[in-house]
Amino acid sequence: MALEDLKPSEKNALFDLRLKLQNFLTSDPTSSNLSSLWGVPLLHSQSNPCLDTVLLKFLRARDFNADESLRMLQRRLRWREEYGVDGILEQESDSDSDLDFCGTTYMCGFDREGHPVCYNVFRSFRQSGLCRKTLGTKGSCERFLRWRVRFMEKGIQEFLSFEPGKASAMLQVIDLKDSLGSSMKEVRSAMERMIKLFQDNYPEFVVKNIFVNVSFRYYTYHALFSPLLTPRTKSKFVFVRPSKVTETLLKYINLENIPNTYGGFKRENDEEFSAENGKASEASLKGGSIAIVEIAITEPRVTLVWDITVVGWEVMYKEEFKPDDEFSYNILIQEERKLEQSMRNSFYFNETGKLALTIENKTFKKKRIFYRSKTKPTIPSYNLL
């Protein structure tokens, strides 16, 4: 939000917080090493357009109460000093490689408004002994939290900007699949501590917390730790059942930026599709009907690569090549099967024709079909022999 978009009362609160912060930093001799935050100088005499962005985060977290915002900022500065946050980025070591290997947290793409998206996946802790090894003691849990703080600080450095008009917060997706079993109690405890730590020390750094693959049992569990959250934080929580994951993520993220794990088209180190050639087309499928998506092959001796996903799943799917030459035979590329995930396939075509992707919807619910394709000239391997 730009300064000119603030209400008069909000502008007054911002000016008030600026003044109170300067008085604190100049009058307290112990605050000399607390004069910057995330690389932004906090002393107003050090003119920096990013300062308002930082201060507004604390003001929004405290409903534009300047006194409460200052106290929160002071606590945050003291915590940062005591926790040694500035030195955490330099403390990376091989001892944390098991946490990185788990793939519990990673950045992947951007949402529709340009916010980077952070994914948190805890089911990898279900590997034999891994949960207890990495989170089973007070010391190991603390190591995980420090690792998570370091990841947050790296994300702020690499993906966020405090310049006016740029993204200064991220969208967070938290995958709760298989996280409520008795063997995962350490994960739940660590997650509670992580949420509380970020709420206290990283205000307004998350635009939404989208919890996906939420079981019915989780709603009861959520009620247990929801009192730890402020009303503003609660308003940013979205809970999604497994059948609605892709549909919900599409409200916030373009399909090309949703990982294929969640029904999207984004793949790590994708060598086939890029931002320039990766835009998806959309078709609709009524309940109890069949849709055929046709992709033309206009040149012979090419390889066609295609992606397809159906929001809501629960459809039958097959792939078939129909040549233009009436004397050639149709080729069944993929026999009919239930489509339960985003699919990528490729096939070499020696002649022109059409690739027919047949989707049958046996439910009464309307479905959304997304697909994309590309062709590339190919020399068959047998020609090289």
TrEMBL record:
<keyword id="KW-0472">Membrane</keyword>
<dbReference type="InterPro" id="IPR036865">
    <property type="entry name" value="CRAL-TRIO_dom_sf"/>
</dbReference>
<dbReference type="Pfam" id="PF03765">
    <property type="entry name" value="CRAL_TRIO_N"/>
</dbReference>
<keyword id="KW-0813">Transport</keyword>
<dbReference type="GO" id="GO:0008289">
    <property type="term" value="F:lipid binding"/>
</dbReference>
<dbReference type="InterPro" id="IPR001251">
    <property type="entry name" value="CRAL-TRIO_dom"/>
</dbReference>
<dbReference type="InterPro" id="IPR056794">
    <property type="entry name" value="PATL1-6_C_GOLD"/>
</dbReference>
<protein>
    <recommendedName>
        <fullName>CRAL-TRIO domain-containing protein</fullName>
    </recommendedName>
</protein>
<dbReference type="Pfam" id="PF00650">
    <property type="entry name" value="CRAL_TRIO"/>
</dbReference>
<feature type="domain" description="CRAL-TRIO">
    <location>
        <begin position="109"/>
        <end position="270"/>
    </location>
</feature>
<dbReference type="InterPro" id="IPR044834">
    <property type="entry name" value="PATL"/>
</dbReference>
<dbReference type="Pfam" id="PF25099">
    <property type="entry name" value="GOLD_PATL1_C"/>
</dbReference>
<dbReference type="GO" id="GO:0016020">
    <property type="term" value="C:membrane"/>
</dbReference>
<dbReference type="InterPro" id="IPR036273">
    <property type="entry name" value="CRAL/TRIO_N_dom_sf"/>
</dbReference>
<dbReference type="InterPro" id="IPR011074">
    <property type="entry name" value="CRAL/TRIO_N_dom"/>
</dbReference>
